[in-house]
Structures are given as C-alpha cells and as structure tokens.
Amino acid sequence: MKFEQQINRIKDKLNRLKEADQDFEIFGSDTHEYNLNPAKTEEELMKFETENQITLPDEYREFLLFVGNGGAGPYYGLEPLEHGREVDLDYVSGKYLLDLSKPFQFTEPWNVEFEEADDDNYEEIEQQKIENYYDNKFSNGLLRISNFGCGVRMNIVVNGKEKGNIWVDDRTNGNGIFPDPYFDITDKITFLDWYELWLDKSLKEKNIS
C-alpha cells in the first residue's frame, strides 16, 4: 500500500473524532455519524475503471480499498463511488451522469458572467446559460465525492492535467468551477491531504490536538 502511513493516521484521527463528537456537532456529521461504507474490492474498482475508461487517482483508490466507499467525510460526508458520476447529488437517479472518459479541461478557476436578465431577455439569457455554462461538458473528467450543500459539489479530477486534485463545482450559485479554497486551502490539494485536513480542523474544533 503506497499511502499506508497516511491512511493509518487518517483511521486513527477518524476514530478519535468519532469518540469526541458523539453529539454530532461538527457540520454534516449528523448525516454520516462518522460511519464508513464497506471498502471496495480490487475487482470492483477495475470494473468501474474499465467501464469509464479511466484509472482512479492513487490516493482515492487506496482510500476506497482500505478505508471505505463513502460515509464519514467533509461536509455531508463522502459519496460512494456509485454516485460519483451523478450530475446532481441532491437527486441521485442514475439517469443524468457525467462523462469520465473525457478529460477535465480547466487548470485555473473558470466562470462566465451573463447579462442581467429582465422580462425582455430572460429566456434568451437562460438559454445561453444552458448552452455555455450548465452544459455537462464543463464537468467532464470530474468525479463527485462530496455534497457541500446548497447545490455545491466537491469533486476529484479523474481525467486530465489536474488528475488527483480536488475541485469545486458551484455553477448552481453562479460561482463557476474552481480548485477547492475551503479549509483555508491556498494551493491545490489532493484527496488524502484534503480528507486529513478536514479531520485536523474538526479535531481542533473539538479542542483535540
């Protein structure tokens, strides 16, 4: 296991946080209650990768294999791999899915500003947004990993130059797609560091070092 030391550290911190926050005061913890879904098997991951013409980032892959397939995690918890292609995590249906086989196209924050809509141009502006902003092509290569709430989706890039980095899709609120800036992140961050940072900040919130 390539990331064995960090994964063992993460497991220990998660156990400590679960013990310290039995009243679920940490944001979103009342949803997952610090429980993890059963881990995936190598065969299951290979099947997913083959079907979607990708290889999962190593850190995320080992988490799925040796920690769990969703559950305890940042915001409202980690999504199981099976939900990762959903366009909208608030309405998981299996019908509207992202395309992982095509590379994620951005390396810098992306957003588009539209003319303010009024009664005369509302339909035209909305059509422009559908074609030039909300189109799923802008989220190609992103795998949904967590629901931030309010229509904001946290993602890991699984295809493209940014592979392995955590990005935010906040087009619902007109904020575009950008590298994760939360938890005071000032640079791009990969999965295990992102997950451990959530643990560290949560433990600090509970006054545990």
Describe the protein in words.
The protein is an alpha+beta fold and 209 residues long. It has helices at 4-20, 29-32, 42-52, 58-66, 122-132, 191-205; strands at residues 142-149, 152-157, 166-169, 177-179. The protein has a four-stranded antiparallel beta sheet with strand order 1-2-3-4, with no helix packed on it. A hairpin with a 2-residue loop joins strand 1 (142-149) and strand 2. Helix 1 (4-20) packs parallel to helix 6 (191-205). It is globular. The mean pLDDT is 94.
Shape summary: globular
Q: What is the H-and-E element order? A: HHHHHEEEEH
Question: What's the arrangement of strands in the largest beta sheet?
Answer: 1-2-3-4
Distance N to C terminus? 27 Å
How would you sum up the major sheet? 4 strands, antiparallel
Keywords:
single chain, 209 residues, alpha+beta, four-stranded antiparallel β-sheet, 6 helices, 4 strands, 32% helix, globular
Task: Indicate the topology.
Layout: H1 4-20, H2 29-32, H3 42-52, H4 58-66, H5 122-132, E1 142-149, E2 152-157, E3 166-169, E4 177-179, H6 191-205
Antiparallel strand pairs: 1-2, 2-3, 3-4
Helix pairs in contact: 1-6
